[in-house]
Amino acid sequence: MRAGYGDGSGAAEVQVTNPSGGILGGDELGMEVSLAPGSSATVLTQAANKAYGGPEARQDAAFEVGEGAALEYMPHHLIPYASSNYRQETRIRLAKGAILLTWDAGRVARGERFAYARLSSRTRIMRDGLPEVVDGFDLPAGGEPFGGYSYLAGLYVLAPLDLAPLADELHHALLPGAPRVLASASAPSSGLCAVRVLARDATALYRALNVCRALSRARLGLAPPVREVW
């Protein structure tokens, strides 16, 4: 794995690849990333993560972000195939003055609507040893829990500044996406902006996420993204 430096700012861009092409039943995958104080990095995945049928598979990711460091973690969405049993957990520990922009996205249904056996995801974000975000879902098979929408995502921005203006900006930027996108943004606390997205299709999902990413980076004083995530 090699870091690229595409925008000239000195921020590293790292692409994570699963050479097997997907997650098989019984797989246990893990990733640990640490950012030194004052560093910057964007961590991406090569493509959508495919979870296949079989026994429970797990994926755990852990991040440590030092003082004054800035992390973007932008994984592609998860595709849970029929009979898959998948659980993932993302844990992020931030120093007091660190910056974070991350999202978690998944395709919960398509032609095989909600045919997975079980789908579970947890995101835990700590700042200076205190919990800022504890979020996720645990979905059994069947039903129509999202009113006909097939993709869902959560996006989180954390920084040592007031993010209420960013939440307002994102909320209004997402409104024109309806009805293909149903989304909202809020600032539960001063240094946290949270966004919820439901989308009809992948194109609408990533259009919404990329808009949020570009506006968030501008608000945080970061350079525009080198490329969008699709």
From TrEMBL:
It holds the Pfam family UreD. Keywords: Chaperone, Cytoplasm, Nickel insertion. It comes from the Bacteria. The keyword Glycosyltransferase does not apply. GO terms for molecular function: nickel cation binding. InterPro entries: UreD (IPR002669). The keyword Chaperone applies. It is found in: Cytoplasm. One of its GO terms (cellular component) is cytoplasm. Required for maturation of urease via the functional incorporation of the urease nickel metallocenter. Belongs to the UreD family. This is Urease accessory protein UreD. The gene is ureD.
